[in-house]
Structures are given as C-alpha cells and as structure tokens.
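Usage

Read records sequentially. Each one opens with the input sequence:
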Amino acid sequence: MFLRARLAGSPAPPLDDAQRARLDALRAGLPWPGAALHDLAVDRGAVVAAALILEHRLDAGRVSVDTPPTPGPERLVAAPGVAVELYERQ
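and closes with the structure output:
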C-alpha cells in the first residue's frame, strides 16, 4: 500500500501507532548516511558543471558549484538540489 502510493507519486496513507512505532524502531537502528549524501551532492554538482563546460562550451571560470550543507534526519527536504552560478564574462 505504501509502496504503491509512493510509486504513483501520491502521499502515503497515514501510519497507525503500531506501524509508526515499528518504523521508528527500524530507523533508530540504521546509521545516518551523511557522508554518502555529501558525496552525492558533490558528484551531482560536478556533473552539472561538466555539462555546462563541455556540452554548452562555457568557460570553466564562469561556472561555480556550491554544495549545500549535508542534511540531517531532522531537516530533510522534498527533493535534493545543488546551486550552480554562472558569472559574467570578463
């Protein structure tokens, strides 16, 4: 039921108390993948920068990628993101 909702892009049905307790217990036993999330953000930024430089032929000095702070479990966002800034030509 939850997987079907997620695959359909719909909100998952609410958990009852027993399901919430089980989920919380499972999550408490898992390590937070902070380093992996940081590495993923760095890699995504590098791919975007490379695409701008190689495919769109922008000068590398004009492209800047900022990696956002690594989120913790208390501040997750709906979708990951990366900030890319293009500078004016000199």
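Summary fields computed downstream for this record:
- Residues 33-90 form one domain.
- The chain has three helices and two strands.
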